[in-house]
Amino acid sequence: MTAQKATALVLRTVDWSDTSRIATLWTREFGKVRVLAKGGRRLKSNFESALDLLTVCSIVLLRKSSGSLDLLTEARVVQRFPRLRSDLPALYAGYYLAELLADWTEDYDPHPSLFDEALETLQTLGTSLAGQQQPVTGPRLMRFELVLLRELGYSPVLEACVACQTAASGPELSFSPAAGGVLCQNCQTRYRDSRPLAAETREALRALQESPDAWRHSWSPLVRKDVRQLLNHYVTYWLGHRPRLLPYLGS
After folding, report:
1. Environment class of residue 237 by beta-carbon count within 10 Å: exposed (0-12), middle (13-18) or buried (19+)?
2. Are 235 and 221 contacting, i.e. CB atoms less than 8 angstroms apart?
């Protein structure tokens, strides 16, 4: 077995024995990996505190055969996000980010741009924009969700009716997770889960989907709430179950 190095974000850990842990890591180089950290529960080990949740670390692992856990031989802290600990909504958002990456991605399916987006999101969560009163936690997390959906092939269609492909325009549009996006007035009755889509909500979604900096915009509380609810339904539908952290998210 050849030792391989990677940069990883700790998504989840569980105790495996009196001295060891199993960790789920999201790496830039390999995607999601599940590793056995022998001695990981000891106060003094090769891992120190690098396996704390939402810690970025530099790791060395030994790849095992298919179906077996990889062996983690070294983990050193690269970055932490301590300000999350003083901002409960931001901390819940960080936990939600980790839950999506752990539950929705496949082992050894790397997405470097998604890794970078996750780290940039964690760096921003809980901060406020200069000169603005509203928090950026909600919009920043929404931007991450839309990048995740794009990378995994689930981006909602917003430019045209997903059913008949006519240009999406007018005040009578709706949105359906089952359909995969926007529906025109003629097609919306075909989907039971369709809900009215306000023009401002659609524009916010389009901006967050297309622009890396759109989350900095001063969206109104009503628009933020509407986008949050829409993404809640969309993520739940395509993930196949309701994320555990969803009830704790703000807009």
Report:
1. middle
2. no
What structural domains does the chain harbor? 3-79 (2.40.50.140), 83-248 (1.20.1440.120)
Q: 3 has which bridge partners? A: 62
Q: Give 130's contacts (C-beta < 8 A, 6+ positions apart).
A: none
Q: pLDDT tens digits, residue range 116-156?
A: 999 999 999 866 554 454 568 999 999 999 999 999 999 99
Q: CA angle 82-84-87, nearest 5°?
A: 130
Strands (E), the chain: 3-15, 21-27, 31-37, 56-62, 70-79, 174-176, 181-183, 195-196
> Does residue 115 have a pLDDT over 50?
yes
Cα distance between residue 142 and residue 162, in whole Å: 21
What contacts 107, CB < 8 A, 6 or more positions away? Answer: 31, 32, 33, 34
| Max CA distance (Å), the chain | 65
Q: How far is residue 5's CA from residue 37's CA, in Å, rounded to a whole number?
A: 15
Q: How far apart are CA 223 and CA 172, in angstroms?
A: 17
DSSP conformation class of 33: E
Cβ-contact 21, 89 below 8 angstroms: no
